[in-house]
């Protein structure tokens, strides 16, 4: 009889972690008696992998692990008679290193509101066996969490983020060959603005026209920058952006029309909040009130009475032309020759009008007649004693006023 040997065959060789490993116990040469019933059992490091004997010459490990590495052999027997042990085979399970580590965040985009849940998902596209996952925060690598599991994905959760959680994050994975790192992912946590408070800062308790009032709007909470807008009766007065805390101000020089309701609005891109309404009552002095009233009356007169006034002036202009035409057509008789009442007058002379002036007073017509006395100047020899030619200007102008009614006018004869 030839001696029969047992051979232990491992498939695949070397085994890959996470894959199926099959152990086969093979007799060499095969037993001569075909009806012989062989029983098999497999061992690792001196311990049976299966307590019972089995007629199958194979043993399978569905997902072999790195820890499954060791010394293996098999044993065969016929009925109760032990046949032989196989040679020992040293099996080393091979592990595939992790690769292509990446970090994903949920919700995607990296922008969260305060109080939302943040999920950091660390992924690897390759690697076998148990993988240790790490999560870090910031460039200094502040450790957040560590988790070990035989999978290609693991998660880390922050139930409710705060504004202070805004930072850069990354993860790492290691299955025995050294950690592999992901890229940095930025996360921004923003705080919605709270309802702003509008305050009025005035120089005195009583507001009057001309005072300078400061409107101050401030939201107690909210991520910067914040855009503030000011309203008067829901009409926008102006806006200003604040990149630091403390709110913003809007200066207003008061007029009589600035009384009413004021409010402000704060918006940081997440939500907009409107403040409560603040009423502003402005006291108007009597002088200012009269000015406003006078201005209103003038505007009213200009708007309503201007056409009527222009019409009346035009009519008066036409009437005046008619009046002046009538006066020019009126003939004024020359005065009757009379003896001279003046000193040194030698003979009666006819006075000739040089020009005339016409005035209308209280509806009565008054004619002012102006005459120039034409008189021969006697020579020096003929001049009477005591009389000098220079005593009277021969070109002197004398006027006489003719009154229509002396009771209506207070004019005297003018010389």
UniProtKB/TrEMBL annotation:
The keyword Chloroplast does not apply. Keywords: Cell membrane, Disulfide bond, Glycoprotein, Immunoglobulin domain, Membrane, Signal, Transmembrane, Transmembrane helix. InterPro entries: Ig-like_dom, Ig-like_dom_sf, Ig-like_fold, Ig_sub, Ig_sub2. One of its GO terms (cellular component) is plasma membrane. It holds the Pfam family Ig_2. Residues 4-86, 97-188, 196-279 form the Ig-like domain. It is found in: Cell membrane. The keyword Ribonucleoprotein does not apply. Signal peptide: none annotated. PROSITE patterns: IG_LIKE (PS50835). The chain crosses the membrane at residues 296-318. PANTHER family: IG-LIKE DOMAIN-CONTAINING PROTEIN, VASCULAR CELL ADHESION MOLECULE 1. This is Ig-like domain-containing protein. It comes from Muntiacus muntjak.
């Amino acid at each position: 009889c030839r001696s029969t040997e047992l051979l232990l065959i491992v498939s695949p060789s070397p085994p890959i972690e996470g894959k199926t490993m099959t152990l086969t116990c093979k007799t060499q040469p095969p037993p001569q008696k075909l009806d012989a019933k062989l029983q098999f059992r497999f061992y690792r490091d001196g311990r049976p992998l299966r307590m019972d004997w089995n007629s199958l010459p194979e043993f399978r490990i569905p997902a072999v692990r790195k820890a499954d590495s060791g010394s293996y052999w098999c044993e065969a027997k016929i009925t109760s008679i032990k046949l032989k042990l196989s040679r020992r085979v040293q099996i080393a399970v091979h592990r595939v290193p992790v690769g292509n580590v990446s970090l994903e965040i949920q919700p995607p985009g990296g922008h969260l509101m305060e109080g939302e849940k943040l999920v950091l998902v660390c992924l690897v596209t390759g690697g076998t066996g148990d993988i240790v996952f790490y999560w870090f925060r910031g460039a200094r690598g502040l450790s957040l969490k560590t988790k070990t599991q035989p999978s290609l994905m693991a998660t880390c959760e922050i139930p409710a983020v705060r504004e202070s959680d805004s930072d850069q994050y990354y993860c790492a994975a290691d299955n025995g060959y050294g950690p592999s790192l992901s890229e940095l992912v930025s996360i921004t946590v923003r705080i919605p603005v709270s309802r702003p408070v509008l305050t009025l800062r005035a120089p005195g308790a009583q507001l009057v026209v001309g005072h300078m009032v400061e409107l101050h709007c401030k939201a107690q909470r909210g991520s910067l920058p914040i855009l503030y807008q000011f309203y008067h009766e829901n009409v926008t007065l102006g806006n200003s952006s604040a990149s630091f805390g403390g709110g913003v101000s809007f200066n207003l020089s008061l007029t009589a029309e600035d009384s009413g309701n004021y409010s402000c609005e704060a918006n940081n891109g997440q939500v907009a909040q409107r403040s409560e309404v603040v009423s502003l009552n402005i006291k108007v002095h009597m002088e200012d009130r009269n000015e406003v009233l006078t201005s209103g009356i003038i505007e009213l007169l200009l708007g309503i009475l201007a056409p009527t006034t222009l019409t009346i002036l035009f009519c008066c202009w036409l009437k005046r032309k008619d009046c002046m035409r009538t006066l020019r057509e009126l003939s004024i008789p020359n005065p009757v020759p009379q003896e001279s009442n003046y000193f040194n007058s030698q003979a009666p002379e006819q006075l000739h009008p040089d020009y005339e002036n016409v005035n209308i007073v209280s509806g009565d017509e008054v004619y002012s007649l102006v005459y120039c006395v034409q008189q021969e100047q006697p020579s020096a020899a003929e001049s009477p004693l005591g009389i000098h030619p220079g005593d009277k200007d021969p070109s002197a102008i004398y006027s006489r006023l003719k009154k229509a009614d002396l009771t209506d006018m207070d004019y005297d004869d003018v010389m």
